[in-house]
Amino acid sequence: MAFEKELKVAQLAVARASILTKSVFAEKAKGTISKEDKSPVTIGDYGAQALIIAAIKHNFPEDEVVGEEEASTLREQKELSSKIWNLVKDTKLSDEDSDTMLGGPLKTEDDMLNAIDAGNSAGGAKGRIWALDPIDGTKGFLRGGQYAVCLALMVDGDVKVGVLGCPNLPIDDSEPLKEDMGAAATDKEGYGVLFSAVQGEGARIQPLTRGALSGGHSISVKKVTDVTQAVMCESVEAGHSSKGDNAEIAQKLGVTGKPVQMDSQAKYGSVARGAGDIYLRLPVRKDYQEKIWDHAAGDLIVREAGGQVTDIHGNRLNFSIGRTLRDNKGVVATPANIHAQVLKAVGEVLSAKI
Ligand SMILES: Nc1ncnc2c1ncn2[C@@H]1O[C@H](COP(=O)(O)O)[C@@H](O)[C@H]1OP(=O)(O)O
Ligand SMILES: [Mg+2]
Predict the structure, then answer these.
(1) What is the pLDDT of residues 272-314, one digit of tens each?
(2) Could you tell me if the CB of 45 is within 6 A of ligand 1?
(3) Does ligand 1 lie within 6 Å of residue 137's CB atom?
(4) pTM of the full predicted structure?
(5) In the chain, fewer beta carbons within 10 Å around the N or the C end?
(6) Can you list the positions of beta strands (E) in the chain?
(7) Per residue in 312-325, pLDDT tens?
(8) In sequence order, what DSSP letters do the residues of 145-205 get, joined into one string?
C-alpha cells in the first residue's frame, strides 16, 4: 500500500484536531468561551492547525504545509494565545501509542505558535506539500452544524492522500442527507466520521471517536440511474455559491427534490458515500479564487469513490499552481456516470448569463 504512514499520520492528526474542535464547541456551549471572545472559531482554527502541523513536522520534517492560518495576530494577543494553549496542551488521543506517533503533545506555547506559522508554504508543482484547513465551514461549526477538518498531501502538485474529519455527520451511510444536523449532533452518539483516500486505492469511512480509530469500510458514490432522482447539495452561504443558478440547473436536469444545504467539505464526503449525489459550487463573484485547502481532500475522496470532480468548464481542479485554484472556476462533483450530463446543464445555464 502506498503512503501508508502518511495516511495514518493524517488520520490520527485530523482525529486529534477534531477532538479539539469539539472541546472548543463544548466550552462555548458552557459559556467558558463567550461570544465576547468572538473567537470560538479562531480558537479551534489555530489550535487544530497547531496540532496537525506539529504531527506532520514530527513525522515528515522536510514536508511543507499550506495552512489557512498564521500566528502573527496571536503573538500580539497574549490572552487569546494562552487560552488556545490551554486547550492544545491537553488535547490527546485516547490511544497512547497513536499520540506517541504524532510526536506527543506540544511542549510549549511557543512551539504552538511556531507550528501554526509553519503553514506558510507557497504551494506549487514541486515536492511534498500538505494542504490544511483546520476548520472548514466556520458558520456551520458555530451553529453546531456541518464543518470539517481537512488535510491532503500533494506530491508534485497531485493529491495523493486526503482526509476529512466531519464531527457532525452521521455514522450511518444510509441516513438520508439532512440540512443542519443541529447542535444536538455535536458529540452525540451516532455522529462523527472520518473520510480518507489514497490515490489509486479507493476511499474509506470510519467512525470518528475520541481518537481510537478502528473499523470502517470502503465507500462509493451512488449509481444514479435516473438523474431526476438525484440529491443535490450546496453551500449554506449564498455568497459562496449561486443558489439561483443551482435551482435553474436542477430544473434543467428535472431534479425534483430540494437541494440539501450544508457548510464545508462535508458536501464532498456526502457525495463520496452516496448520501448526496451532485455538489455544485457556482461562482458568485467572478474574481474569487478558490483555496486549495478548501478542495484538495474532498476532490480526491470523491474521485476515489467513483466520482468525477471538475470545475464548471469541465477541467480538473489544478492544485499545482500555488495556494489558490486560480485556473479553475467553481466545482462540479458527481458520480462519474452522470458527470457529462450535469456539466452540460451547468454550461447551458451559465453561458446564457454571460
Ligand atoms: N466568494 C466566495 N466564493 C466561494 N467560496 C468562498 C467565497 N468566500 C469565501 N469562500 C470560502 O468558502 C468556504 C466555505 O465553503 P462552504 O460554503 O462550502 O462551506 C470557506 O473556506 C470560505 O473561505 P474563507 O474561510 O477564506 O472565508
Ligand atoms: Mg475553508
Answers:
(1) 999 999 999 999 998 999 999 999 999 999 999 999 999 999 9
(2) no
(3) yes
(4) 0.96
(5) C
(6) 64-67, 128-136, 148-155, 158-170, 191-198, 203-207, 217-219, 232-234, 260-261, 278-281, 307-310, 331-335
(7) 999 999 999 999 99
(8) S--EEEEEEEETTEEEEEEEEEEEEES-TTSPP-S---GGGTT-TTEEEEEEEETTS-EEE
Q: What pLDDT is stored for residue 260 in this prediction?
A: 95
209 among known catalytic residues: no
In the block, which residue shows the cell 515536492?
127
Does residue 99 have a known ligand-binding role?
no
Give the active site residue among 37, 95, 111, 138: 138
Q: In the sheet that 232-234 helps form, which strands lie side by side, from edge to edge? A: 260-261, 232-234, 278-281, 331-335, 307-310
H or E element that contains 240: none
Backbone angles phi, psi at 58, to 5 degrees: -65, -40
Report which protein residue has its CA nearest ligand 1's atom 1. Answer: 240
Kindly give the distance from the C-alpha atom of residue 264 to the centroid of ligand 2, in angstroms, as a whole number: 7
Annotated binding-site residue? 263:
no
Q: Cell 488535547 belongs to which residue?
A: 91
Please tell me the distance from the alpha carbon of residue 269 to that of residue 165, in angstroms, as a whole number.
9
Out of 70, 166, 240, mutate this one to test ligand 1's pocket (max ligand atoms within 8 Å of CB): namely 240
CA–CA dist 244, 37 (Å, integer): 35
Q: What residue ranges define each of the domains in the chain, with the CATH number in brackets?
A: 4-219 (3.30.540.10), 227-351 (3.40.190.80)
C-beta of 11 in contact with ligand 1 (< 6 A) = no
pLDDT confidence tier of residue 37, bands split at 50, 70 and 90: low
Residue 263 in contact with ligand 1 by CB distance below 6 A: yes
- Taking only the tens place, the pLDDT of each residue in 224-269 is 999 999 999 999 999 999 999 999 999 999 999 999 999 999 999 9
> Is 32 an annotated catalytic residue?
no
> What average pLDDT does this structure show over 89-104?
91
294 is in an annotated binding site: yes
